Amino acid sequence: MPKPARYIQLNQLRSASLSRPLDPANENPALAHSLYQKCSSVLSLAADDQNIYSGSQADDILVWDKATFTLKSTLQGHTGSVLALQYAPDRKWLFSASGDSSVRVWSTTTLTPLFRISPHLDSDSGDIFSLAWSPSLSTIYFGCQNTSLQWYAFSEDKGSIPCPPRQDPPFDTFCNNSGTATPRRAHKFFDSYPQYTRRAADLNARNSYRSSPSPPESSSPPTDGCLSPALSASMTAPAALDTPAKNMVWSAHYGYIYCMALSPSTYEGSDDKPASAKDEIRLVTGSGDSSVKLWSLPAGVPTLEHTFDCGSGAVLALTVRANTVYAGCQDGYVKVLDLETRTCVRTILVQEGVDVLSMSMLDSDLYTCSANGQIQRWSSSFDLSASWDGHSGIILSSLIVLSETPKDNADGASKPRAVLITGGNDDYIKLWDVEPPTARISDQTELDQVQQDPHNDTLLYALSKFISIPSISGHPRYKEDCRQAAIWLRKCLSQLGAESSLISTGEDNNPLVLATFHGAQTQTKIPRILFYGHYDVIDAHKSGWSSDPFQLLPLNGYLYGRGVTDNKGPIMAVACAAASLLRKRALDVDLVMLVEGEEESGSRGFSETVKKYKDQIGEIDAILVSNSTWISETTPCITYGLRGVIHCEVEISSSGSDLHSGVDGGDTMEPMMDMVKLLGSLTDSKKKVAIPGFYDAVRPLTSDERQLYTVLSGVTQTPASSLSAKWREPALTVHNVEVSGPKNSTVIPATIKARVSLRVVPDQDLDTIATNLQDYLKSEFETFRSPNSLHMSIKHIADWWLGKLDDPWFLALENAIRDEWGVEPLRIREGGSIPGIPYLEKEFSCHALHLPLGQSTDQAHLPNERISLANLQRGQAVLERFFTKVARGIVSEV
Ligand code: BES
Ligand code: MN
User: Fold this and answer.
1) What is the pLDDT of residue 198?
2) Interior/surface letters 557-596, b for 16+ CB within 10 angstroms, e for the rest
3) Average pLDDT for 530-555
4) pLDDT band (50, 70, 90) for residue 564
5) What's the N-to-C CA distance of the chain in angstroms?
6) If you compute the radius of gyration of the chain from its CA atoms, what whole number of angstroms results?
7) Distance between CA atoms of 303 and 281, rounded to whole angstroms?
8) Closest protein CA for atom 6 of ligand 1
């Protein structure tokens, strides 16, 4: 086999991200302008046609002229950091939420305060982190530190005050000179919250630039250009509005409500259609409790519809595009949630361990802003299309503003433009020239592809990373690699949309990966399928291989590498099938993936662990496995039977030590001689196993089977008797014989160990066969009257498995194969063993199905292991069809 150029750079392989690395041809957006807000971090941003508004940590809102990039005015009044801003274009109002427990409303035409909204139970609401204005409901929603969700509804009569204004409390000595501020009172519970140590969102919360309450002099800022009094708007007292008790969901979350958004999105840059009167408007809230909640808004009142558990730390930022919610989380993950099916369709790994603090969308492009100052752009297919250093500190806020002046192309055509505005704790506001994805990707058909799977190779890309980890369970040297493979797989499956975790199977064993792809939630119970696979592989000695076994090599339609067929390739095909359906919002079954790391070593710790976590796995309707091959290269198959296996170690040793054959040979009964005779006694000259009663329980061949074997014999060009011998008759193998000592040809070894295995078939009983084997060896050995001693131990066992050919699940899988390939699949059995299958059938009281994806020439366990790329990809398609079929109702389909 020739050695082509390396396919994927090694340095790309180990990163856990499934997103394609940046194409060097992609240009990062250019910096159009910077605004320096000398005295304070930029916590929040909003904009209208004329101005950019920045909420500062120093309690003020700075108003910047969009055309001249100069500071126009300062809106004063808040006595705490300005944590959120929202522009309401329909009213020309600016809403601001603050650490002083108030929401303020400003006129953007006069730049004067209009209202001060007090949350219900004023002092107890804590900081107000998040805002969302619904023009059609004329309601401002706000999320509080005390976990309450509150709202204030304005009447349809624009600008009118719905309830009698309350007088602001009298100014006290701590108020600033605008005369409108109300100092924040201490909260009996939340104010004991420790100082910020790590989480940027908490940094904003209680860390006012001015110490609170504000000393009077701090309200007369120095004349260094920062918050210049000359620029401050002259403030009139805003009308005070109280949030009525009924406008509050108490304990809306179990943590601070850091962020919220409306669906359809109301933000500039969104391609969502504005909500019309008949459209359902929904609110999503994200919290420190790591959940996102979906609220319907009948008559504007939030009613909890669903809770998404993001499972990866606080939800710090939210953005919405139609039915899709992007939740930016602690530690660098963005969960992509579908509001219709109520599923997590994908997880984007932005940067591990770096909080995602703000996000903005321009059509289908997602911009993520992180705690390390970096900005990333993600395509609709979750690939990274730009990445750059935006700020020298933490990025706390971002916003998309559409530009009225389209950029002229070289060819004279104009391109739509937009500006991404970001604000950080480096006191800068930065304006980046960005283009909507349609402008960046000129060819529309290319765009369509992007929205599918741009490279059509998530499967291939993920597999190349998976293969690069030598997860060999048979050798302690690779224990850490096995753990790394499990960790990688957990992250991979979670990025593909599953809820995934690692489960220990005992200190000496490799962990299990448990991942659930949740199907769309419906009133009725949806089928739950348990996929079983194994991420461990057999050792690969480089000598027999034509390429590096741990670097995926695509060549002439095949993928080469250790584990491609057994079992990493099929695992990825199953995961990609679920991910693809999720992306199409068409996954209507729950797929639980249980992937172990000990199969090649006899599934150590598997059954005990599954038993222990049975509740977490939940009820299962069918088991699915894909860990064997077709019998030929061309015709798809469905496997309905496997043999079982009993592995026995036989040891014969003398009472002394190794001897010199010249010195002692002839005067000693050599253990090796005993071993040779003993192993020789196991079979006769016709391969028949000599253990008494060994064949008694073997199920006789039926006429149907005989007919089947005749057909298969034609396909495979092998005699029917050979197929029968491999699939439905038991067999004995002597695998190896090991000797003590230096192994040179002058030594009589004192100890000999041999590994013997028996493949067992229906209806042989494992325990009976294991006992009979040992009894037989013992009795044979006794006839030798040898001074040496014999020890035997059963290393591992696996039961045989026979599927149910008239089971509706089996027929549905068979139909899916037929539909995809357009030919009748062959029903086959296999001679190998998978301990997990018969065990899982018993444990979950349901049938197993086995879809082979490999071909007979795959070389599992041997050098140059491979799998056909087309088989893998069409295998994924078969699986998608199967999941779709069984979701529609298992009985009606068949
Ligand atoms: N995938 C194989 C089992 C297999 C091989 C099924 C060929 C069908 C055809 C599995 O990974 C394997 O190697 N199993 C071992 C089991 C043992 C280690 C308990 C086997 O069959 O020897
Ligand atoms: Mn194997």
Assistant:
1) 31
2) ebbbbbbbbbbbbbbbbbbbbbbbbbbebebbbbbbbbbb
3) 95
4) very high
5) 45
6) 34
7) 12
8) 832
Does the pLDDT at position 825 exceed 90?
yes
Q: Are residues 536 and 550 in the same domain?
A: yes
pLDDT band at 23 (very low <50, low <70, confident <90, very high): confident
Residues with C-beta atoms within 5 A of ion ligand 2: 566
Mutate to test the pocket of ligand 1, among 599, 630, 801 (most ligand atoms within 8 A of CB): 599
209 contact partners, CB below 8 Å, separation of at least 6: 39, 40, 41, 56, 57, 58, 59, 81
- The answer to whether residue 523 sits within a structural domain is yes
Domain assignment present for residue 194? The answer is: no
Residue 215 lies in a domain: no
Report yes or no: 301 and 357 within 8 Å, Cβ to Cβ.
no
pTM of the prediction? 0.80
Considering the domain architecture, whether residues 773 and 875 belong to the same structural domain is answered as no
The residues, ordered by sequence, that sit 6+ positions from 702 with a Cβ below 8 Å of its Cβ are none
Q: Which two tokens stand for residue 443?
A: 């060819």
Give the Å distance between the CA of 527 and the centre of ligand 2. 29
Task: Please answer whether residues 219 and 78 qualify as being in contact, where contact means their C-beta atoms are separated by less than 8 angstroms.
Answer: no
How confident is the prediction for the chain on average, in pLDDT? 87
Residue 37: what pLDDT? 83
Give the count of alpha carbons within 13 A of 890, CB side only.
16
Which of the two residues, 236 and 110, has the higher pLDDT score?
Answer: 110
Q: CA 18, 19, 24: angle at the middle one, nearest 5?
A: 135
**Any ligand 1 atom below 6 A from CB of 450:** no
- Tell which of 752, 776, 798 closes a domain: 798
Residue entry with tokens 């991910």: 579
Left if phi > 0, otherwise alpha if psi is -120 to 50, otherwise beta: which for 455? alpha
Q: What is the CATH number of the domain that holds 150?
A: 2.130.10.10
Which structural domain range is residue 571 located in?
Answer: 444-642+802-893
Nearest CA residue ID for atom 5, ligand 1: 832
Least confident range of 311-320, 688-697, 749-758, 798-807:
311-320
Is the beta carbon of 45 within 6 A of some atom in ligand 1? no
Residue 421's alpha-carbon distances to 204, 371, 397, in angstroms, are 19, 16, 8
